Each structure stands twice: as structure tokens, then as C-alpha cells.
Amino acid sequence: MIATTIARKEVLLVRRDRRFRFIFLALLLVMLGAVLLGAARTDTFERERANALAADRSVWLDQGARNPHSAAHFSRYAFKPIPVLATLDPGSTDYAGLAVWMEAHSRNPATFRYAEGGGALSRFATLSPAWVMQTLTPLVIILLLFASYAGEREDGTLRQLLSSGASVGAVFWGKLRGALTALGWIYLPLAVLAVVAVTIIGGGAAQTDLLLRLVLMLLSYGVYLFAFAVTAMGISALCSTRRVAAIALFTFWFFATVLMPRLSADVATSFAPQPDGFEVSNSIDRIGSAFWNDETVRANARQEALDEYGVASADELPINYAAYELQASEVYGDRLFDEEYADLDAGHAAQEAVVDALALVSPTIAIKRLSAGLAGTDRLHHLAFLAEAETHRRQIIKQMNDDMMHNAGDAGYSYQSDPAFWQEIADFSGTTPLLRAHLATYLWPFLLLLLWALGAYLFARRAVARASNLESAK
Amino acid sequence: MIKTVMKLEWLRLRRSPAASLILLFALVASFYAVWSGARWADGYQQSLEAYEAHIDERMANWRSQLEAIEAGTAEPSPYDARPMDIRLAGTHALGDLGHLAIGYRDITPARLTISAWRNDISMVERYEFDNPTILSLGTFDFAFYIIVVMPVLMIALSFDVIASDRSSGRAQLLLSNPVSEAGVILSRLLVRNGFLAAVMLLALLWGFLEAPALSTTGAFLWAALCVGHMAFWFGLIFLVVAKVRKSEGAAAGLVGAWVMIVFAVPALVDTAVEGLYPPPSKLAYLSVARLAEGEATKRTAELTEGFLADHPDLSVGDANVPGFYRRVFLANEQVRENTAPITAAFRQIAGARERTVSLLQYLSPSIVVQRALYRTAESDMASSRRFLETGGDKLQTLSDDVRSAVISRNRITLAQYDALEPLRLDGAGTSTASVVGLIYLLLLTALGVIVGRRLVGRRLPGED
User: Which of B36, B252, B270 lies at the smallest CB-CB distance from A246?
Assistant: First the structure.
């Protein structure tokens, strides 16, 4: 009963506070702007992808009679589908590249990173719904709750309340319910805006498990904001004045949402440095020509061809041997490319392990990682695109080598494929991976968030009990 | 009296654990930022040097082939010393102060291969191997410390510079002495922030010492911008603490201003500029380039005949030179010609964006400082664009130099080759925009102090 009364009083205080109305409205407007901007960006990405794919297909089909190996060097592009949830959280989309050139002899990285052509001020803050939820909303919660206990302690009303017979638990529950109601007022409109953004106006590539992703995303943000709300209550209870509570909470917010995410990236590169672009590029070139520079490997390939066709010399082969070698060089290179990129991925994973570890001191790091993963815009989803593109590259290059191998005869590199052959080379359609493929990876940041929320709740209870004891003893 | 106030403040500062913690954090964070930037810059420069050495080695081999052919000491194969195989390294060297402001350098290309095999797209060496997660989180460089962290530390040290005295009544006692309230606030702010300034300047000095070569103008401008930015926040803090009576109100107001100035306004300006001037699609650019390449490949014979007909003086060289040399060269020429309108559109949009941001930057001093620091350190977007444009021009020059030889299947002479030079784009120094930005910051500071003094002066002695 007392808890309900306290909760009602807390809600009433917030409702009467004109500052809250102003902040609430401002936050909604910023979120609305971010949602509209996110939807427009995602839509633009997808439109550009569709146009580029159509143009690539047209150029490919229209190349006329041409040697298939020459065509394999011209080859085709794989364009990355941008998922609809990128509207809410672009994650690392802007820094990951939008297209892969699927040429012969080379496994290329994704190029055309949007950040390189983006705004000139984008390195400090980019307006997105995720940024609003991760950075601005916790600040608003802090502004609302910093005085929840500290104000009562400073004014002496907490002592009054406790002396009137209210138990410490009842006061805590009342305050908590009041805080959660205020949090709900902030969170629900933002969540509705987010849902509307992806279900009605969002323009990205379809995600078959969109609903699951969206629900988990909203749940995660709910846990994140709850953690901030109870932390704010706990810190407020520890402070005897509004002044100290305000500065302590702003400091916590600054460390958690601004400083630590950036510092985590920096610390991660201290432990596992970013790869040297020149060295990796050089390795890719070396791998591309590894087969041709190794006489033993070439001799083995020749012997395999002779054994396969049961002949004694290359001249007797019923196929074009140059094309056979081209395919053998691809197969030889594939293994080396896999090793090279596995090393690269291992380095990236090591960096992210450091970032994840630092989520222990900042829930914002955990929500950033989790949110981008659930949106399908993190590095793991990008890797899935790269893997799909690489599988496609191997398939289409083999098709072209096979064409030359079986149809070129002695003409070799002078042989030209029939223009109709180009239609047999499939477009890269690209799929958005299912969440369940990576679910285990996202368990850690989600558990961390839960841990943060639980820890914050226990901390708040303890802080409130301590504050109540101190006030009662006065 | 002011001296006494300052001495007392110094004592209070020394005895305050919170203030000591903030100053310690400032010391660690600022020096870490310099160290981190220097570490990154070392890796960046070493990578460029390795690349230049790699190209040099390759071209030394190429040159020796040509030398032997000219001297008649070797029987050349059709593949030896072809002008198509000339490679010039194009590198975007870091500015002298690039380690203090990494800016956009970690996401923009720094290595080009200027070669007739390449076009404006393919001349950029593969570079997108960095972890996108890490890139999206950003770097903790000294510019970040100055623009984002330092104002927070100033706020944390200064938000209650007078409010607690006002609420406890000590202010009245203090003002019974021959001293004004504005004087007390200003002197206290000077003491509190003076240490932050000293720490910042020490870290900056170390940053200057870490620079491989340093121009006095650049260093002076950087130091002046850092101090100017601090001065702006000093003025704003003075204004807010003079106006707002309660310390939590002052803290909330200052944090709100910080969020607006550092994050919200730059994000909104960036969004507005992007909306007003959307960049041409890079994928559309790629499509046009591929279309041109495809068309040129189909018309190789026709284009070759046309060129040779226009240059009857050319004698056709070695017929054994593979046809794809000529085909790729012509395709790249066609790509350059066909993508010229899009390239021009990119430049036009970039120019319009630059002009708009130049106007809108005054909405937030953070934008002014960020642009000026990045520009002075040569790590802004404009620097990268300039590098790519210069690379494109260099590629055009090389193509002009080798065109006749490639199409007629001849070689160029050793003397012609020796006249070619690699591209190493270094910093272009400072800009007048940085000086204007500095003046703007100082004007804002003066405004903050003047208005703050008036606000304090308007209050009646017994009001507190």
C-alpha cells in the first residue's frame, strides 16, 4: 500500500516536472529524426544495390564473344544486401564495404565503404536510433532519477517517511515502480517508433527472422535501460545531496557510454593490432601466383591430369590443359586464401574479445555488440556475406575454366565463348543470415547485460538499505 | 585579495580527493592519447615505406631489363620492360601532426599504384582489411581528448565553483572583503582549470616531440586551437555558474550544453549536409566504369586502328606482345573518359558540402575545432580527396607518356622512364580557416566572460 502511494507520488512528481516534458519531447523528436534518416539510408543502400546488380548483369551479358579467362578477370561483383534492421542500428555497415569483386586468382576484400564518402563530421557521432537508445536515453534517465533518493535525503523527507512507519523495502519498491513507470514512458514510444520504422517504412533487404531479431533487440534495450535506471537509483541513494548524485551519475554515464566504447577499441588494437593492409594485400597477390611460381605443384597437377584421363602426355589430353591448370591454380589458391583470411579473422576476433571483456565495465559496449548483431549489421554478418561471395566466386570461376577446358581445344586463350554462355553464370543474390547461426556468440553480451541489470538491482537495494539506515539513525 | 582567493583555492584543490582524481585522469588520458596516436602513426608510416620499397624493387628490375635492351646486351622477350608494367608508388604520407589527430586516415586509402594497367578505381591498392567493428568505435587520439574529454573534465572540476558557497552562505562572508563575485569565480576557475591546461600543454609538447618533422606554424596553431577550445569552455562554464544558482542545476546545464555542442549539433549538421548534398552512388560509379571497360574491350581493334591512323608516324613494334596489354590500356582510357562526369559530380558535391559545413560549423565550437585540428594535421576528408585526385592526375600523365608506345607495341626509352617520379603527397600545412576558427573561439570566450560578469554583477549583495 505504502509502496503504491510512493510510486504514485514519484510518477506525479515526474509528470509535474516541466523539464521532463521538454526532455521527453526532445528525445522523441530526435528519435523520430533518427528513424526517418535510418530508413532513408537503408532504402538508398538497397536501391543502389539493385541498380548496381542490374547494371552488372547487363554489362556481363552484353560482353559479346570473349575468352572465358579474360571474362573471369573482368568477372562480376557481389553486392551486399543491407538488412531492414540496419534502419535501427547500422552497426559497422558504414565501415565494412558494400561490394566484392569476384575475379579470378584473387579473393578480394569488400570495397566501397560508405564511411569514406560520408559526412565530414561523422567520426564522433552519427545520428541513428541505436545511438539515441544507447547514449541519449540513459542520460535522460539519469536526469530524471538523480534526485530520487539524494533529493529526499537532502530535504530530510526520507527520514520523515521512514519514521512514519514505511519499511525500507516498501520505499524501495515504491521508488522502483515510479522509476520504471517513467522509464516506460520513455521506452515505449521509442520502441513503437522502432517497430514502425522496420515494419512499415523500413526499406532494406528482408530478414526472415525479423520478428525474433526485433523482439530480442527490444528486450535487450529494455534490460540495458533498466540497468541504467536502477544504477541511477542506487547511486542517488549513496549520495547525500543532489549535487553529488548528479555529478556521480554524469561521470558514470560519460565513462560507460562515451569513453569506454572508444577506449575499448583502442585497447583492443594494443593487444591485437589492426593488420598491415600492404602485407595482407601482398599476400593475396602472392597467393594468386603461388601455383604458377611453384614448379613442383605444377608438375603434380600435370600428373594428376594425366592420371585422371589415363594418358602419358599433356598433348594427348582430351581437354585444354591451360584451362585445367587455371582451375588447378584456383583450387590451390583457395586453400591458401582460406588460411590468409582465417588469420585475418582470428586477429579481428581477438580484438573483439578484448572489447567484449571491457563490457564488464560498460554496459554500453555490451548493448552495442548485441544490438548490431541482432540487427545483422556486425562483423559476423559481414563475414557471412564475404563467405557467400567467395563460394559464388569459386563456382563461377570454375564454370568459366570448365568452359575453356572442354571447349577451347587447341585454340587455348584464342578461344571465345559463345555470348549465350554468359547467361549460365548466375547473379550473386546474397542472403541475410539467420540469427540462430550466431546465437551462441550473442549469448555473452546478453548475459553481460543481464548481469549488469542484476548487479545494478542488487547494488541499488543495498545502497537504499544503507541510506535508509543512515537516515533512521539520525 | 584575488591572490588570497587563488591561494585558498589551490589549497582546496590539493586537499580534494575528487579533484586529484580528475587531474590524475587528465594526465593519464592525455598522455595515453598521444602515445596511442604515435603508435598508430608508426605502423601507418612503416606500411607506406614498405610499399614504396616493394615498388622500387620491382621497378629496379624493370629498369635493368630496359637498360640491357638499350645496351643490346640481352635478347628481350615480348614481356620485358613493357611500358604497361611501369609502376609508380603513390602514398599519402601522414602530416607532421597526424599522430595527434588520426581523423579519417584510418578509413581512407593511402597507397596507389600508378600504372597503365590501372584506372581511377583499380589504382587504389586493396586496403579494407581492418576490423569494421573497431573502426566504427573510433580512435582515442589527442583530438578526441581535446574535443570530447577535456570539456567534461573542466565541467567536473568547475560546476560547483561558487554554488556551494552561495548555498552555505560563505559567499556573503567572502564578498564582505574587497572582491567582486565575478573576480572570485574567475580566479577560482583559473586555478582549477589551470592545472588541466598545464597537463594538456605538457601532453601536447610530448606530441610535438614525437612528430618526425614539425613546422612552427602548425605547432603554434595546434597549441592555440587547444587553448582556444579550453578558453571557450572556460567562458561557457563561467556563464553557466554565474547564471545558475544551484550546483546540480549548473552541472545539468553544462552537461546538456556539452552533449549538444559535442554530439548533437555535429550529428545534426552532418545529417543535414548529407541530406542537402547526397553523394553520387559509388556503386553507380562502378557500374559506369565497368560498362566503359566492357565496351572498350569489345572495340579494342577499332580503337587501336583509329589511334594508329591518327599517328601515322608511329612504327608498329613487336607483334608478339600480347593483345591484352593494348586492350586493357584502351579500356582504362575509356573508363577515365566515361567516369569523368561522375568524378566531376563527386568533386562538385564535396565542394558544396565543404562550403555548407564551413558556414554551419559556427553552430558548434566542437565542429570548428575538429575541422581545424584535422585540417592542420592533414587528416580530414579533403586531404584524402586531394590525394586521390592527385593520383588520378598522375595516372593520366603516365598514360599520356606511354600511350604511343603501348598502342604501337614499342617501349619507352630509359631517359623517358627516369623522368617519371613517384607520388608522395605530404601535408599542405595550415589553412586560414583554422585561424578564423581560433578567432571565433576567442570571441565566444570573451562573450561568455562578459555576459557572465554582467549576470553576476546584476545580483544584489544579499541575494545569496
Answer: B252
DSSP state of B462: G
* Beta-bridge mates of residue B343: none
Q: Is residue B431's pLDDT more than 80?
A: no
Query: Which spans in A197-294 are helix H?
Result: 210-238, 242-253, 260-271, 277-293
Residue of A nearest to B133 (CA): A92
Q: What is the DSSP string of A370-393?
A: HHHHHHT-SHHHHHHHHHHHHHHH
**Residue in chain A nearest B109 by alpha carbon:** A116
Q: What pLDDT does B464 receive?
A: 40
pLDDT band at B315 (very low <50, low <70, confident <90, very high): low
Chain B segment 35-64 residues within 8 A of A by beta carbon are: 36, 39-40, 43, 46-48, 50-51, 54
Contact A92 B132 (CB under 8 A): yes
Look at B281 and A48 and tell me if their CB atoms are within 8 Å.
Answer: yes
Lateral strand order in the sheet of B88-92 = B111-114, B88-92, B423-425
Positive or negative torsion for Cα A446, A452, A455, A457: negative
Model confidence over A33-76: pLDDT tens digits?
Answer: 899 888 888 988 889 999 999 999 999 998 888 899 989 998 99
| B257 near A CB under 8 A | no
Between chains, do A278 and B47 touch, taking CB under 8 Å as contact? yes
Among A94, A139, A276, whose Cβ lies nearest the Cβ of B136? A94
Which of B56, B87, B130, B347 to mutate to test binding with chain A, by most A CBs within 10 Å of its CB?
A: B130
Whether B304 and B330 have beta carbons less than 8 Å apart is answered as yes
For this complex, say whether ipTM is above 0.85.
yes
**Chain-centre distance for alpha carbon B237:** 29
For chain B, give the mean pLDDT. 86
Q: Which pairs from B296-302 meet CB under 8 Å and 24+ separation? A: B296/B327, B296/B330, B296/B331, B296/B333, B296/B334, B296/B335, B297/A63, B297/A66, B297/A70, B297/A74, B297/B327, B297/B331, B298/A63, B298/A64, B299/B330, B300/B326, B300/B327, B300/B330, B300/B331
Which residues of B25-107 form beta strands (DSSP E)?
88-92
For chains A and B, CB pairs below 8 A equal: 251
pLDDT range class, residue B426, cuts 50, 70, 90: low
**B332 interfacial to chain A (CB closer than 8 Å):** no
Whether A265 sits inside 8 A of B140 (CB atoms) is: yes
One-letter amino acid at B360 equals L
B33-44 mean pLDDT: 94
Cβ-Cβ contacts under 8 Å, A134 against chain B: none
* Helices first, then strands: H and E counts in chain A: 17, 2
Residue ranges for chain A with pLDDT beneath 50: none
A190 touches chain B (CB under 8 A): no
B134 touches chain A (CB under 8 A): yes
Partner-chain contact B357 A120, CB within 8 Å:
yes
What is the domain extent for residue B309? Answer: 1-464
Indicate the residue of B160, B270, B287 with minimum beta-carbon distance to A55: B287
> What's the confidence (pLDDT) of residue B462?
44
Least confident of A7-16, B85-94, B117-126, B256-265: A7-16
Into how many domains does chain B fold? Answer: 1
- Tracing cell 576557475 back to the chain, one arrives at B189
Tell me the CA distances in angstroms from A240 to A243, A248, A466, one per residue in order: 9, 12, 12
Q: How far is CA A21 from the centre of its chain?
A: 33
**Partner-chain contact B281 A56, CB within 8 Å:** no
Q: Grid coordinates representing B451?
A: 555576459
Spatial separation of the C-alpha atoms in residues A425 and B202, rounded to whole Å:
62
Smallest Cβ–Cβ distance between B251 and the set A116, A246, A270 belongs to A246
CA B458, CA B446: separation in Å to the nearest integer? Answer: 18
Do β-strands B423-425 and B88-92 pair in parallel, antiparallel, or remain unpaired?
A: parallel
